[in-house]
Design brief:
By secondary structure, the protein is α+β, with helices and mostly antiparallel strands. The protein folds into two domains: 43 residues, no CATH class; 31 residues, no CATH class. It is built from three helices and two strands; from the N terminus they run αββαα. The longest helix is centred in the N-terminal third of the chain and has 14 residues.
């Protein structure tokens, strides 16, 4: 077992991704926040479904769609945003 020596959080993340990369569990991802970077790959792989290691969602990215699915109208969503209930 290899010992990880950590100076700070960024160093830990770099070492973790390096170890995952060596084991074949790191992939390239593109994020609107972090640009292009290496990240852990999905640990589960299934024969009939493709897992895609995207960069993740931004805060509030799907709020409107989710609220509409729950039955809220645009005016109601705007009211929630105005009162800082949702982003």
């Amino acid at each position: 077992m290899r010992l990880l020596v950590v100076e700070d959080d960024r160093d830990l993340n770099r070492q973790l991704v390096q170890a995952l990369d060596q084991a074949g569990y790191a992939v390239d991802a593109v994020s609107p926040i972090f640009d292009e970077h290496r990240r852990p790959a999905p640990l589960n792989r299934f024969s009939r479904s493709a897992t895609k290691p995207d960069a993740g969602c931004r805060l509030g990215q799907h709020t409107d769609a989710l609220l509409r699915e729950l039955g809220y109208h645009d005016e109601q969503i705007a009211g929630l945003r105005k009162r800082d209930v949702v982003r």
